[in-house]
Amino acid sequence: DVSWTRLKDLFLGPGQRPGALRKIAKTFISPEEVFVELSEPLNLQVWLKDHGHQGRDSFHLAMMLRRDLLQQIARHRQNTTGPVLKSYEEIKQNVLMDDELQTYMSRQSQRRNVSANAVRKEAVNYFDEIAAKYRPLTMKLAVRIIQWMSTTFFEGISVDIKRLANIKTMALHGTVVYVPCHRSHIDSLVMLATTYTNHLSPPHIFAGKNMAFWPMGPLLRMIGVFFVRRSFQGAVFYTRVFSAYIANLIEEGYHLNFFIEGTRSRSGKLLQPQLGMLTILMDVFQKNPDRDLIFVPVYIGYDQVPEEKEYLHEILGGTKKPEDAKQLVNFGRLFKRKFGKIYVKFTDP
User: Fold this and answer.
1) Which long-range contacts (CB under 8 A, 24 or more apart) does 285-293 make?
2) What are the tens digits of pLDDT across the range 44-76?
3) What value does the mean pLDDT take over residues 298-326?
4) What is the mean pLDDT of the chain?
5) Sequence-separated (6 or more) residues with CB below 8 Å from residue 86
6) Burial of 242 (C-beta count, 10 Å sphere; 0-12/13-18/19+)
7) Which residues pair with 296 in a beta bridge?
8) Of the candidates 206, 220, 193, which has an alpha carbon nearest to the alpha carbon of residue 254?
9) Nearest to 247 by CA among 211, 283, 201
10) Which of 49, 277, 299, 339 is deepest in the core (most CB within 10 A)?
11) C-alpha–C-alpha distance, residues 51 and 222, integer Å
């Protein structure tokens, strides 16, 4: 069956490469989403010296210059809209075909004396437990809801626009890894809205498996959240699949976000950094140093944290309630008044 979305893309062009009709329609239907950005300038004299093109004929130089300009435009587009989307099954196949993971799975099959199919099935289960299922339309809707929340229950989001512009320029040359402090469950939503509304491809976000409960889990996966166990201890096969997934995200050109403290701070002070995700990222980088990683520490602060009463309860000796659908309803009841401003401050990448 051909879906309405596919029919629309067929006649109007896909969202990431819109045709003339889609561009005209977007201009009239959603003019606030239309913007113009200038890419980095290219100095022809410097370009000729850097690439050793002296002595070549003008036609050859024009062709090479055209290629470089188109590549630069493509990088700028990807930096704004994100990589070309692939289906969930295609991403799964790419991850499972990772050379190192394939070698490990073969050894597992021999060591445990089980079929290769059984080992692959186990890897598939781990992938399904981890992976995001990003949907641009869901992201667009989520950002609108977050914007409504930020003005209804807060007094808006204060963003360091100047530093963000610098980050956007650097993002043209590699994968941005945002490393925020962690104060509230809504930190992830704030990061997504901040990047999306400032025309920067939103990051895929690292979250604890405790947040994968229904119905939040499936919804969060559709806005680029992927889930991970609290501990990798003794789970070597799981760790291998997770590392292959991270490597695939970086290779495809997605930006990443993980909270270096690992959990929310109840006191407002920074907690001891967790090294697990950093170790995986360093390992991926060392295997492919051509793809740069750009780390951006981020401060997310609130005039008043929505979960303040919950934190006081825990600090005074109360037990932490596990995240579930019931707690989601209770969390929604917090928003009966305004909590002041939200602050997002970026440091130098």
Assistant:
1) 287/247, 288/247, 288/250, 288/251, 291/174, 291/175, 291/250, 291/251, 292/173, 292/174, 292/175, 293/174, 293/175, 293/177, 293/250
2) 888 888 766 667 788 888 898 999 999 888 888
3) 82
4) 87
5) 94, 252
6) buried
7) 178
8) 206
9) 283
10) 277
11) 42
Rounded to 5 degrees, what are φ and ψ at 63?
-65, -45
Say what the pTM is. 0.86
Q: With contact defined as beta carbons under 8 Å apart, do 168 and 75 qualify?
A: no
Q: b vs e for 41-73, b when ≥16 Cβ sit within 10 Å of the residue's Cβ?
A: eeeeeeeeeeeeeeeeeeeebeeebeeeeeeee
Is pLDDT of 2 > 50?
A: no
Q: Which two tokens mark 324?
A: 């579930």
* CB count in 10 Å sphere of residue 132: 21
Residues 6 or more apart whose CB falls under 8 angstroms from that of 214 comprise 325
| Chain position carrying tokens 């050109």 | 253
C-beta neighbour count of 199 within 10 angstroms: 14
Closest CA to 134 of 274, 267, 245: 245
Q: Is residue 35 helix, strand or coil?
A: coil
Residue count of the chain = 349
Q: Is the pLDDT of residue 239 over 80?
A: yes
Q: What is the DSSP string of 195-234?
A: HHHTTSPPPEEEEEGGG--TTHHHHHHTTTEEEE-S--TT
Q: Which residues contact 124 (CB under 8 A, 6 or more apart)?
A: 92, 96
Distance from C-alpha of 228 to C-alpha of 131, rounded to nearest angstrom? 9
At a CB cut-off of 8 Å and minimum separation 6, what does 312 contact?
A: none
What lies within 8 Å, CB to CB, of 2 at 6+ separation is: none
Contact (Cβ atoms closer than 8 angstroms) between residue 65 and residue 108: no
pLDDT in tens, 127-153: 999 999 999 989 999 999 999 999 988
